[in-house]
Amino acid sequence: MSTHVLVLGAGMVGVSTALALQQRGHHVTLVDRNARCLETSYGNAGIIQREAVRPYGFPREWRAILRVASGRGNEAHYHLGGLPGIALRLARYWAHSAPAAYAPIAEAYERLIAHCLTEHARWMDECGAQDLVSRNGWLQSYRTPAVWHAAAAEALRVADRAGLDCAVLDGAALAAAQPALQAPMAGAIHWKDAWSVSEPAELVERYAALFVKKGGVVLVGDARTLRQQGRGWAVDTASGSVDAEHAVLALGPWSDQATRALGYKLPLFVKRGYHRHYRRGATLALPMLDMEQGVMLAPMKRGIRITTGAEFAPLDAPSTPVQLHRAEQSTRSLLDLGEPVEAQPWRGARPCTVDMKPVIGAAARHRGLWFNFGHAHQGFTLGPVCGRLLAELMSGETPIVDPEPYSPARF
Ligand SMILES: Cc1cc2nc3c(=O)[nH]c(=O)nc-3n(C[C@H](O)[C@H](O)[C@H](O)COP(=O)(O)OP(=O)(O)OC[C@H]3O[C@@H](n4cnc5c(N)ncnc54)[C@H](O)[C@@H]3O)c2cc1C
Question: ∠ CA(304), CA(193), CA(131), 5° rounding?
Fold first, then answer.
């Protein structure tokens, strides 16, 4: 039965959900406080990570934990003052990363991410986004031979089990694949199934334009005004109050605030991240993660986008882009990076859950309220398949994957 649905949040997850609902005959109004895509779906590294069959667990090895705790590693940074507020959630994240708890999580994640390319391809074909997309995979590179050997053996095991295409490149093969490199590296893993996008926000905006072309409505409004009204929901927008039978919260890192306001205590937290572009004549042939320095280098329309690892800090605490400064320094030993394009780095936040899986499904205590958030490190990848999954649940269709591992009721 066709109904009117409010989708709150127009990042990759919200726009994809709106498209999937519209495809099933629902009348959909998409509401965001910004008229453009400016948040997490804007600032990511733009990789559609078909190979990411294992979500990022909390390091369990003491050497890795000590590296982060002592501030020696660049893959993570934390605000000491912010830790007490998230300590319990980090402890649960740590517990879910133990091998016995992690195994079923990774199995569920793998079943979901297996559909990421086909679900993106549907909307890319319809909106004409091929010019933004490269289908050549990405490189996970290493500076130290022993670390590269160990990682390559593990990558081959994962690829074999999950049916992924990956090649192990030695230093010479890496230099050939990435001609802009000016210093030797030990080697790399080339994940060949993944796609990359030269301007992530533009892809989201093309999906949103497709939604509008097909009759969808996009309005500027504040999700904090969401309230129950009659048998449904209402929200205030710049065009007045809009009501509908159903409301979907797809607010990425702001979902915690919205769900708390409605009385839900979901174990959500954020891992903040930064980016900045650097422009010079040479560019990268493929996105490349400098694993041991915790630096992702992504070729974008605006130059090479450096993105950083996880920063554990409150969502709105002032920016502390120490990881970006270190990333810039370490990258200058590999590449002729040039000057930064922006005066200040961009800052965003990955919306995370303690069990590494997104929250997709019906809210337990409110009729007509639905959740789709918590996609952490892979929300740009997962938006379309998770949008489809939620739309199927809302429409009473057979879901593309078993929805139980993602149910809000698991908390
Ligand atoms: C540095 C970095 C690199 C990353 N790289 C990758 C990658 O390569 N591949 C990948 O798959 N993922 C990557 N990610 C993760 C990915 O970007 C996120 O998981 C994804 O963008 C989340 O999408 P979303 O739609 O849930 O959230 P968002 O894109 O943040 O969208 C949420 C929307 O809600 C709106 N909103 C918030 N509050 C309100 C309100 N009160 N009223 C109305 N609207 C509101 C915001 O304006 C925003 O548009 C990366 C993340 C970071 C930070």
Answer: 50
DSSP 143: S
| pLDDT at residue 255, rounded to an integer | 98
Q: Which two tokens stand for residue 165?
A: 């295409």
Q: Please tell me the distance from the alpha carbon of residue 289 to that of residue 155, in angstroms, as a whole number.
A: 14
What pLDDT is recorded for position 333?
Answer: 95
Other beta carbons within 10 angstroms of residue 64's beta carbon come to 14
| Model confidence pLDDT, tens digit, residues 179-222 | 999 999 999 999 999 999 999 999 999 999 999 999 999 999 99
79 close to 314: Cβ distance less than 8 angstroms: yes
Where on the phi/psi map is residue 274: left (φ > 0), alpha (ψ -120 to 50), or beta? Answer: beta
Degrees, nearest 5: CA angle 306-308-313: 145
**H or E element at residue 91:** helix 83-96
Whole-number Å distance, alpha carbon 145 to ligand 1 midpoint, is 35
R_g (Cα) of the chain, nearest Å: 21
Rounded CA separation 295/307 (Å): 6
- pLDDT tens per residue, range 346-372: 999 999 999 999 999 999 999 999 999
Nearest atom in ligand 1 to 224's CA: 41
Query: Cβ-count burial of 407 within 10 angstroms (0-12 exposed, 13-18 middle, 19+ buried)?
Result: middle
Map tokens 């882009």 to a residue.
321
Which atom belonging to ligand 1 lies closest to the Cα atom of 296?
A: 3
pLDDT digits (tens, 9 = 90+) for 216-249: 999 999 999 999 999 999 999 999 999 999 999 9
SS3 at position 250:
coil
Residue 141 DSSP class? E
CATH classification code of 4-44+201-267+355-410: 3.50.50.60
Residues with Cβ within 8 Å of 107's Cβ and at least 6 positions away in sequence, in order, are: none
| Ligand 1 centroid, distance to 252 Cα (angstroms) | 5
- Mean pLDDT score, 26-53: 98
- Can you tell me the distance from the alpha carbon of 385 to that of 65, in angstroms, rounded to the nearest whole number? 33
Ligand 1 first shell, C-beta below 6 A: 8-14, 31-34, 39-41, 43-47, 49, 222-224, 250-254, 273, 275, 307, 348, 350-351, 373, 375-381
